[in-house]
Write a structure and sequence with these properties.
The protein is mostly helical and 49 residues long. It is built from 2 helices and no strands.
Length: 49
């Protein structure tokens, strides 16, 4: 669970860094919920149907 959390956190940090680099806050804000859903789907197998 700890490794998972670190991986999850680092991915979010990468997204935030990308946002800062691109300076496209609106786009990231729109996509963030979808990215979050995707990350949860990827990292937590129990959410899969």
């Amino acid at each position: 669970m700890n490794k998972l959390f670190i991986k999850f956190s680092s991915t979010i940090i990468q997204i935030l860094m990308l946002e800062t680099v691109l300076k496209k806050h609106e786009v990231v804000e729109r996509l963030f919920p979808y990215l979050l859903d995707w990350l949860i789907y990827q990292y937590i197998p129990s959410t899969r149907p």
